[in-house]
Every structure is written in structure tokens, then in C-alpha cells.
Amino acid sequence: MKGLLAKSDSLLVRGQDTGEYQAKDPQMAAYLKYIQILRETFEAFELVHVPREQNARADLLAKLASSGKGADRGQSFRIP
């Protein structure tokens, strides 16, 4: 796969990715591991910070994904 631009409203996640912060919490360590997998999967990968107030739609999708009530793994769906 070519490249992925990932956006996060979490400065903590961004800081853990850059090594500025440690991922001590198990959930945060899982996020960091997933970022590392993405980085290995794509030829180009960039994680950028987007302030939460500029990212309300993505925040809603993230809450849905975290709840485990979204689509099954591997299933895709379109969000208008």
C-alpha cells in the first residue's frame, strides 16, 4: 500500500508516537501498537494532530469504534 495520513485529536497519542511521552496505560499502549503496525504497513505514514473542536465528526466515529458497536472488522461503510 502506498501511504496513509492519519489524524488524531489526541496530543497524548501524537506525543507517544513521536516518543515525547510513554504509553504506560494499557489502552494507550494498544493505540501506540496500532500506530506502529500502520507505520509498517504503508510505504508512507504520517500522524497529524487535529484539534478536537475542528474534528467533531471524527470524534463521533472514534467513540463509535471504541465502543465495539460499529461494523465488524473488515466491513466497511460510508459515513455521509
Structural summary, described in words:
The protein is α+β, with helices and mostly antiparallel strands and 80 residues long. The chain has a two-stranded parallel sheet. The protein is globular.
Can you lay out the helices and strands and say which pair or pack?
Layout: E1 3-8, H1 11-18, H2 26-41, E2 44-49, H3 56-67
Parallel strand pairs: 1-2
Fraction of residues in H or I helices: 40-55%
Mean pLDDT: 82
Question: Reading side by side through the largest sheet, how are the strands ordered?
Answer: 1-2
What is the H-and-E element order? EHHEH
Q: Brief overview, please?
A:
This protein is of the alpha+beta class.
Keywords:
80 residues, alpha+beta, 45% helix, 15% strand
